[in-house]
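Hello everyone,

My group is preparing for a crystallization screen and wants a predicted model to guide construct design. The compound we'll soak is adenosine-5'-triphosphate. Before spending weeks at the bench, it would help to have a computed complex in hand. I've included the protein sequence and the ligand's SMILES below. Output in C-alpha cell form would be ideal because that's what our pipeline reads.
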Amino acid sequence: MIRLEEIDKYYSSKFQRIFVLKGINLEIEQGEFISIMGPSGAGKSTLLNIIGLLDEPSEGAYYFYDEPVHKLKEKKKTEYHRNHIGFIFQAYHLIEDLTVYENIETPLLYKGVKGKERKAIVADLLDRFNIVAKKDLFPQQLSGGQQQLVGIARAIAGKPNLLLADEPTGNLHTDQGKMIMDLLKQLNEEGMTIIQVTHNQEFANYGSKIINIVDGMVEE
Amino acid sequence: MIRLEEIDKYYSSKFQRIFVLKGINLEIEQGEFISIMGPSGAGKSTLLNIIGLLDEPSEGAYYFYDEPVHKLKEKKKTEYHRNHIGFIFQAYHLIEDLTVYENIETPLLYKGVKGKERKAIVADLLDRFNIVAKKDLFPQQLSGGQQQLVGIARAIAGKPNLLLADEPTGNLHTDQGKMIMDLLKQLNEEGMTIIQVTHNQEFANYGSKIINIVDGMVEE
Ligand SMILES: Nc1ncnc2c1ncn2[C@@H]1O[C@H](COP(=O)(O)OP(=O)(O)OP(=O)(O)O)[C@@H](O)[C@H]1O
Ligand SMILES: Nc1ncnc2c1ncn2[C@@H]1O[C@H](COP(=O)(O)OP(=O)(O)OP(=O)(O)O)[C@@H](O)[C@H]1O
Ligand SMILES: [Mg+2]
Ligand SMILES: [Mg+2]
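Reply:
Good plan to model first. Here are the C-alpha cells for the complex, ready for your pipeline.
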C-alpha cells in the first residue's frame, strides 16, 4: 500500500543543507499497525507528514497504492489526503473558529456524507470520548487533553483507509490513553491501516511492528 | 508561600455556570516539590494558571508570600509573575517571531541580567538540552519535543523562586523526560519551589507529594 524509496528530506540554509531524513526505504502493507519511535528531532513527524501527503520529499519516490504520488500536483495530493487519509497532529491543529462539533464534522462534509448520518457519527464520537458537554465550545475553551480527543475524533470520523497518528496520547491520562489505543486496535481489526508515532513503549506495543528512527534514518 | 482559600473558578454562559474549580483549599510551603494529577478536564491547568497569576479565581482568596494577590491590579500581577515565577506551558506558547536563542533569553531581559551573563546562561541551557544547532531557528522549524525543551529552558533561565510546569514531558522520549525530571529535582534541592502537572506516574513520584484533582476538586 505504501512504498517509500530512498526518501531524503533536507532544508537548505545559505551555508548548509540540514538533512532531516536520509535514504528512507519503507514498505507498509494494507491492514498493518505500525509504531514509529525515536528521540526528539529524529524526523518522525516529518516522515509522517510525507506519508500523509502534507509535505514533499526532497529526493526519492513515494508509491501510494502503486501510484507515484510524489509526482502529483498539489491539488491532486490534497484530494488523495482527504479521501484516503485521517491525520492526528502532534499539535492538534483544530480550527479555532469552528466548534468542537463542527471540527469533528469537517471530514464528513468533504466526503459528502448526508446530514442524518453525519449527525449520528459525530454524536457517537462525542459520546465515546465523553465530551458531549463540550460540543458547542471552541478549541481555546478546552483542556489540552480534550483538544487531543477532538483531533482524534476528527481523524477517524470519516473511517479513512489510512490513519496517521502523531503522538495521539501525549496529553492524556494513562486510562484515557489506553481507551484510545483499544479503539485504534479495534479500527485496525476492522481493516484500517494505522501508522502511529509514539514515545510510549506500552502503547507502541499495540502495533504489529516497531520502526525506530534515529537522526533521520531507519535503525536496523 | 502559597495559600489558596475556597477558590472557585467558573465560566458563565447564558443558561448556566460551568464550574471548573470548586472550593479549592491548598497550602504549599517554600521548597516543596508537588505533583498534581487527574483526568483530562479536571481543572489542573486552570489551577496552575491561577497560582501563576495568569488567570483570576471567580471566588476565594490567594495569598502569595502572605500577600492577597487576588486583589492586585493586572499590572502588579504581571510584575509578580515576571519576578518570581517561571511557567512551562502545556502548549509551549513560544514567541513565533523570536529565535530559539531569543525565546530563552526573554526572561533574562525582563530581569535586567547583563549581556555577558545572559550569554552564558543561554549557552549553558542550549548545551544541556542538546539544541545548540537550533539556536537561530524559529519555533515552527522545531520538532514538538524541541519546542517543549525550549519552553522548559525559557522557564528556568531566570532561576525563578517558583516553577510551574504544565505537562513538561508530554512530547519527550522517556530518556529525555528523565533528564528533565532529574534537572527539576536538582533545582528543587537548590531551593526552587516546584509544582508540576503530569499524567506520568513515574515522573509524578519525583515530587514529595501528589495532589489529585477530579472534577475541579481536590480528592482527599
Ligand atoms: N473559556 C471556557 N469556557 C468554558 N469552559 C472552559 C473554558 N476554559 C476552560 N474550560 C473548561 O475547564 C475545564 C478544565 O480545563 P483544564 O485545562 O484546567 O483541564 P486540565 O485538567 O488541565 O486537563 P488536561 O489534562 O486535558 O490538560 C475543561 O473541561 C474546559 O472545557
Ligand atoms: N523548516 C525547517 N528548517 C530547519 N529544520 C527543520 C525545519 N523543519 C523541521 N526541521 C528539523 O527537522 C528535525 C525533525 O523534526 P521532526 O518534527 O520530524 O522531529 P520528531 O522526530 O517528530 O521529533 P519529536 O519527537 O520531538 O516530535 C528537527 O531537528 C527540526 O529542527
Ligand atoms: Mg514530532
Ligand atoms: Mg491541562
